[in-house]
Amino acid sequence: MSAGLKNTFDPFTLSVIQSALDSAAEEMFTVLRKTAMSPIIYEVLDVGTGVTDAKGRLVSSGAGIPTFVGVLDKAVKVIVERHGDSLKAGDIFIANDPNHGGVTHLNDVVIAKPVFFDDQCVAWTASIAHWGDIGGKVPGSIASDVTEIFAEGLRLPPVRLFSAGNRNAAVFDIIEVNSRLPDFVKGDLWAQVAASNRAEVQLLSLFDKYGAATVNEAISEAFNSGRSRALAGLATLPQGEFSIEEEQDNGKLWRATITITSDAFIVDLTGNPKDDGGPYNTSRDGAVIACQMIFKALCDPEPVANFGSFSPLKVITEEGTVFHAGATAPQGFYFENRIRLLDMLWQCMAKVCPGRLPAGSFASIFGTVISGIHPDTKRKFAMVEPQMGGWGATNERDGIDAMFSTNHGNTFNCPVEICEARYGLDVVHKQLGEKPRNQTGFNGGAGVSVMYEARAPASLSVGYTRAKVPVWSLNNQPPGGINSMTIQRSSGEQEYHQFASGITLEAGDRVLIETASGGSAKRAIREGR
After folding, report:
1. How much is the CA Rg of the chain, to the nearest whole Å?
2. How many Cβ atoms sit within 10 Å of the Cβ of residue 147?
3. Cβ(70)–Cβ(439) below 8 Å
4. What is the 3-state secondary structure (H, E, C) of 19-56?
5. What CA–CA distance (Å, rounded) separates 50 from 220?
6. Three-class SS of residue 208?
7. Pairing relation of β-strands 313-316 and 265-268?
8. How many CB atoms are closer than 10 A to CB 177?
9. CA 314 to CA 187: how far, in whole Å?
10. Fewer CB within a 10 Å sphere, N or C end of the chain?
11. Would you tell me how many other CB atoms lie within 10 Å of the CB of residue 83?
12. SS (H, E, C) 348-362
């Protein structure tokens, strides 16, 4: 602590400042939720919000998807690297390219704004949200048969959306003409801008009250606290080198080695398959986020994450592989790759640390996109719906029924009433799937069965994993289920798909989704029983 801060900086001030930083990120989330145009944002909450320091180091985060929050600091760091020397008050940047700050896929758009106090950039406000259509080969912009990222839609490296408070009309125009849903895209874009602006007001009030030196010192102390908590959690893990290999649905083997020392958690992802020419890859930053998830779950699961929370984590990747995609590799279905990686690391550590983690879950985003024209309003729509499934059991209890994936955090399903009103689809049923009955241990949670019926011609894109290799269990217990999707044509024919896009649905066709039950686990043996 510097001498000049001794009279003003104390634990109580620290707590107040940290709470205010958290509040700014939370208010961003609230503004975004209440002003967005698309149900995938305001109902499903397919978003993330956060505040970083001037260098792009994560300070606080709002509700939403944890893996989305993990994008924001990485995106801001790219912006700082490229534009840091020319930043001005009132600038706002936009990015969606996974190789240039976007991290995920083109549908997920980052809006970031530098916050200036006393003519210095002191922080950033940032959000990420899934947009329903960003151009590309198919409605909804998630195509299964593309071989280059160029076919997936509009790519935006970090560019100025506003310059010194002045709107860059050309960028707005480019975005609008590249989307099949221009009204929704504009509405969601302005919602993210409003969220950043609102958080900026709160941050400026904080800096004005306490001064930049005190706020920066509080942020530094928060980073130190995050690192201390992470190291304390790391000390509870067994030290050593732990490896895992897992076969994927396509027959390929994925592998990882986790090395745990007194001060480091190292994940080595070298030696994995090359990116395969399809949209089933993730950027290096995306792989890092998956590793951050397992590290946080084990070492510091409760408090909000910040830059210090991940300082002991090191991730080794190999460029040109499924976990570090090449420059032109498509990444539309990155989410299945990333959740498969997290699930594999989860399995490795669940066996190394008995009782710390549950058995496997359905572990799929099961992204379902149905696009068309509403039969009543005649308005274009794109339903983007992640699905719920079963989570794994522990040695103390059954698994949880019908939850979103481990990546999804505070996500909700879209209510049936909203789905039918906004998209003009009929939801024939949405119910729990069959729950497994394990007589020798605890059961995994039940998945769900969901059926949509098209009321008018529409286009379907879908992608999910765990369609062939069942969910893993613990202690040699029976495995969990598998995920599946069936199209029931009005003619009586049935089609089965795992990764597909641009499938034509006619009125009366039904889409049946059935997600997997979670893995089971052996009952704990208690003394006296």
Report:
1. 23
2. 13
3. no
4. HHHHHHHHHHHHHHHHHCCCHHHHCCCCEEEEEEECCC
5. 17
6. helix
7. parallel
8. 10
9. 39
10. C
11. 16
12. HHHHHCCCCCCCCCC
Which pLDDT tens digit goes with each residue over 221-233?
999 999 999 999 9
Q: Is the pLDDT of residue 529 over 70?
A: no
Please tell me the distance from the alpha carbon of residue 458 to that of residue 468, in angstroms, as a whole number: 28
Residue 24 CA to residue 198 CA, distance in Å, equals 8
Structure tokens given for 119: 């003519």
Q: Which of 372, 369, 416, 376 is nearest to 506 (CA)?
A: 372
Strand residues in 131-252 grouped as ranges (E): 159-163, 166-167, 240-247
Neighbouring C-alpha atoms within 13 Å toward the C-beta of 450: 25
pLDDT at position 239 over 90: yes
| DSSP-assigned states of every residue in 472-529 | P-STTPPP----EEEEE-TTS-EEE-SEEEEEEE-TT-EEEEEPPPPPPEEPPPPTT-
Which two structure tokens, joined as six digits, stand for 352?
């190394």
Backbone angles phi, psi at 147, to 5 degrees: -120, -5
Angle at 40 (CA atoms; ends 35, 46), nearest 5 degrees = 90
**Whole-angstrom Cα distance, residue 455 to residue 373?**
10
Beta strands in 263-335 (DSSP E): 265-268, 313-316
* Per-chain mean pLDDT for the chain: 93
In this prediction, residues 389-407 reach a mean pLDDT of 92
Name the residue with tokens 């706020």. Answer: 215
- Assess contact for 383 and 423: CB atoms under 8 A: yes
Cβ of 384: how many Cβ atoms within 10 Å? Answer: 27
Return d(Cα 391, Cα 474) in angstroms, integer.
13
Looking at the DSSP bridge assignments, the partners of residue 94 are 111, 159
Q: What 8-state DSSP symbol labels residue 90?
A: T
Buried b (16+ CB within 10 A) or exposed e, 478-514: bbbbbbbbebbeeeeeeeebbbbbebebeeebbbbbb
Specify burial of residue 448 (Cβ count, 10 A radius: 0-12, 13-18, 19+): buried
DSSP code at position 67: H
Whether 99 contacts 283, CB under 8 Å = yes
d(CA 102, CA 339): 18
pLDDT of residue 437: 74
Alpha-carbon gap, residue 161 to 158, rounded angstroms: 9
